[in-house]
Amino acid sequence: MKKKKTENGKTNIKAKIHETVSGKNPLARYVGSNWWRYLIGMVSLTISVLFDVWFPLVTMSIVDDVIVGGNMAMLKTDLTYILIIGFGRALSQYLKEFFCDVSGCRVASMSRKNLFNHIQTLSKSYFNRNNTGELMARVKDDVDKLWDVFGFVGMLTIEAVGYTIGTVIAMVRLNWQLSMIPILALPVIGGMALRLEKKLDKVYGDISEQNAVLNTVVQENLSGVRTVKSFAREDYEIDKFRRNNSKYSELNVKQAVMMAKFEPNMGFIPKIMELLVLLAGGYGVINNKISLGVLTAFIQYANNIVWPMQNMGWLTNALAAGIASNKKINKILAEKPEIYDDEACRELINKTGDETVLEGELKFDDVVFSMDGNKILDGMSFELHKGRTLGIMGVTGSGKSTIVNLIGRFYDVESGSISIDGTDVRKLPLRAVRSCSAVVTQDVFLFSDTISENIKLGSKASMSDETVNEALRLAHASEFVDKLSLGSNTVIGERGVGLSGGQKQRVSLARALARKAPILILDDSTSALDMETERDIWKNLSQMKDVSKIIIAHRISSVSKADEIIVLDNGKIAERGTHNELLARKGLYYSTYEAQYGDYHKALEAIGEEGLICQ
Predict the structure, then answer these.
(1) What is d(CA 263, CA 220) in angstroms, rounded to the nearest whole number?
(2) CA distances to 277, 479, 489 from 483, in Å
(3) Is 341 a member of any domain?
(4) What is the side-by-side strand order in the sheet with 362-371?
(5) pLDDT digits (tens, 9 = 90+) for 488-498
(6) Is position 439 within any domain?
(7) Do the domain assignments include residue 293?
(8) CA nearest 217: which of 143, 137, 140, 122?
(9) CB–CB of 553/565 below 8 Å?
(10) What is the tens place of the pLDDT at every residue in 210-262?
(11) 51/81 Cα distance (integer angstroms)
(12) How far apart are CA 561 and CA 567, in angstroms?
């Protein structure tokens, strides 16, 4: 395993942070990497515009030289020019569309990859503050708007500007007095477009935000559809969706109303301009001030210059939407991961150049941790030596799961230290710290894939089928997996739908065992199992002498065989010792034991007394 590479060849978190250009949006770099495509596209666009500007001049020649002048020899030349213009424009339009669209697609793809990579580097606390629907909207919808800006819309905007400039120059060269009519109309249309852009800028931002909210509502309902049905909350969720959908619709209607107010003027003013050109030009022809061919060319130019004006509102809208989306993307890219590899972190490379595997000697030394101003752990100290088992118990909110998050360094301690193999985890590469432990939680997440691929998660290229089968056996999952039609190659639905809670927990346990990490953490991971299956699993786990185990549970049966048990209360260790030692103290652990087994013991005693009476 080489330096700075994971087993599947992906760069580590630190490299990804540098790849995302320290929170900046590297659009200029992405555009620059496609410079030759954009260059071909822009050259083709320029040629296409020149052909469009040239065509009215050929028409002018046909009218003045051929029709009016009677020069039939010129007709052949003009027809040849028309064929050249037709073929040349078709080819240049194709090259323009192809290279500009491909470039826009590549820029969007790079931006989406950069954004997704950056999101992957962000710490767990960021995802606690932001919902999935919003992030999905940024990665999909907002990047698509950038695609428009750097693809079709951007290309069309440049073409509109270039064509307007070329047409104005051609008209001025033909007759500067007559060209004043369309030139004076341009600022009016431009001013209207700017007003429209300012009004739509905020609307586009609101639409984007509401789109994220709507995505969240849909995503949560589809993911939790079974919970919704279990509580018969379909009507409530439908109403919630309806409210958010109505708000989204209202914002789009507001946008449409703004467009509708401007569209009549955007269409009316060009028609007035064309009429004035025809009247003024016709007067010039009658008075022999301009030729009929010049008027014909002018009318063509006036007709053709209308499309950039009429599309200016739509183009500015699309550009405004792209700018608004870019701001939202930049907001995410500006986020800094709170947890990352320190510059001085120790590389775990041995003399052969391979990565050194951590042994898993874990130590908490007077750890203090707070979140949102609330102290969760206070003076937490314990050690876990290789091959030993630590049991952790405590009421809900006592800090049990926080210990798991700190071991994986999803958060950093406020004071004190957590060390693995004698080195503070803050001085170790994140990848090494997180590879050191395999976690099984009560809330199981399984991907919509085969059971085998779920177990191979993170090691799909290197893990063998034998390892998968052995892990399934140790987790007592093979007994139901083997009965499936395709065995471990059976595809399970999203989040493991189709499997029972206990089956999902066993597949999740198999996934952790297959990883063969030196520390195995079971966070209330057998809560859905029956006592017999749980006992058999603990028997298998107890035979794994090289693996350190942390068992977090509410059931005494889950931790009773641990080498040491700590009982948490308000973020502190209230009691510690073996099962028998804690029972002898008759403290919190004993109270939990009595709550779970008290009635059972009383029943045994009653049976014993009756037996004595019978004797």
Answers:
(1) 39
(2) 83, 7, 12
(3) no
(4) 374-384, 362-371, 415-420, 423-424
(5) 888 886 666 67
(6) no
(7) yes
(8) 137
(9) no
(10) 887 887 788 778 777 767 776 677 888 888 889 999 998 998 888 888 777 77
(11) 10
(12) 15
Q: 115: buried, middle or exposed (CB in 10 Å: 19+, 13-18, 0-12)? A: buried
pLDDT, mean over the chain: 83
Nearest to 305 by CA among 129, 137, 160: 160
User: Residue 453 corresponds to which tokens in the numbers above?
Assistant: 């691929």
pTM to 2 decimals?
A: 0.73
Give 122-127 contacts, CB < 8 A, sequence gap 24+.
122/335, 122/337, 123/337, 123/338, 123/339, 123/410, 123/411, 124/339, 124/405, 124/410, 124/411, 125/338, 125/411, 126/335, 126/337, 126/338
Residue 78 corresponds to which tokens in the numbers above? 């003009």
* Residue 565 token pair: 């048990």
Q: What is the DSSP string of 465-505?
A: HHHHHHHHHHTT-HHHHTTSTTGGGPBP-GGGTTS-HHHHH
Range(s) of the domain holding residue 587 = 362-433+444-606
Helix H or strand E segment including 290 = none
pLDDT tier, 7 (very low <50, low <70, confident <90, very high otherwise): very low
Residue 103's alpha-carbon distances to 37, 140, 142, in angstroms, are 6, 18, 17
CATH for 297:
1.20.1560.10
380 lies in the same domain as 328: no
Residue 179 contacts by C-beta under 8 Å, 6 or more apart in sequence? 168, 171, 172, 298
Three-state secondary structure string covering 431-458: HHHHHCEEEEECCCCCCCCEHHHHHCCC
Percentage of the chain modeled with pLDDT above 70 = 87
How many distinct structural domains can be found in the chain?
2
What is the Cα–Cα distance from 147 to 105, expressed in whole angstroms? 6
Q: How far apart (Å, rounded) are the C-alpha atoms in residues 536 and 427?
A: 39
pLDDT of 442 over the 70 cut: yes
Strand-pair category, 415-420 with 423-424: antiparallel
d(CA 417, CA 415): 7
- Is 573 within 8 Å of 398 (Cβ atoms)? no
pLDDT tens sequence across 516-568:
889 999 988 776 677 777 788 888 888 888 899 999 988 888 888 899 999 99
User: Which residues are within 8 A (CB) of 379 and not within 5 positions of it... i.e. 6 or more apart?
Assistant: 366, 367, 368, 416, 572, 573
pLDDT in tens, 85-96: 999 999 999 999
**CA–CA dist 205, 326 (Å, integer):** 11
